[in-house]
Amino acid sequence: MNPMKEIRIEKVTINIGTTVPKDEMEKGKAILKNITKTKNVETVAKIKQPKWDLRLGKPIGIKTTLRGKKAEEFLKQALQAKDNILKKKNFDYFGNFGFGIHEHIDLAEQKYDPNLGITGFDVLITVERPGYRVKKRKLKKAKIGKKHVITREEAIEFVEKKFEVKIE
């Protein structure tokens, strides 16, 4: 197989959406730090939505990004929490995929802490091929060619083969 056609995981992003109280944000930060053992960042509202009490710049969640070996190890744990089963609708047309975990204690090695409670989170995976840097670089940005773009079917095949996941 052509080495430029091999699919790899670019990054795994973990999001926890929280409610307004500050203690919820602190609990979410602690849970995310326990799960990933990395630094996390607050996300803020980019739009105003009065019905949901959202204002511009108001903190609404926490996220962290994992890359390399940490990303693969975490993804294996997260898929085991989902019993290695994903749905076809979890994949977008560019091969990226995501899923939710209802309770953080579903992950291996996570124990219930009464001070933190139980929180769910989303796991979003971005895939790429060698050569995808051309669309991100600062000078002479270029589009990815049609033959080099990852399709949904290629991503599904990659996940089934690499992580032994069953797709429904």
At the fold tier of CATH, the topology name is: 50s Ribosomal Protein L5, Chain: A
pLDDT under 50 segments (min length 5)?
A: none
Largest sheet data: 5 strands, antiparallel
Supply the CATH superfamily name: Ribosomal protein L5
Q: Say what oligomer this is.
A: single chain
What is the name of the CATH architecture? 2-Layer Sandwich
Could you tell me the radius of gyration in angstroms? Answer: 18 Å
Q: Return the domain count.
A: 1
Structural class: alpha+beta
> What is the number of strand segments?
7
Shape: globular
Q: In angstroms, what separates the terminal alpha carbons? A: 27 Å
Look at the structure and give the CATH class: Alpha Beta
The helix content is 10-25%
> What's the SSE pattern?
EHEEHEEEHE
Strand order of the largest sheet: 2-3-1-6-5
Number of helices: 3
Overall mean confidence score, pLDDT:
92
Features:
168 residues; globular; 23% strand; 50s Ribosomal Protein L5, Chain: A; 3 helices; 24% helix; five-stranded antiparallel β-sheet; alpha+beta; 7 strands; two-stranded parallel ribbon
Q: Would you kindly provide a written description of the structure presented here, covering whatever features stand out?
A:
With 168 residues, this protein is of the alpha+beta class. The chain has one domain: 2-Layer Sandwich (50s Ribosomal Protein L5, Chain: A). It is 24% helix and 23% strand. The chain has helices spanning 22-36, 68-81, 152-163, and strands at 8-17, 41-44, 59-66, 85-86, 97-101, 121-128, 166-167. A 5-stranded antiparallel sheet has the order 2-3-1-6-5, covered by helices on one side. The longest helix has 15 residues, at 22-36. It starts with 7 loop residues before the first strand and ends with a strand.
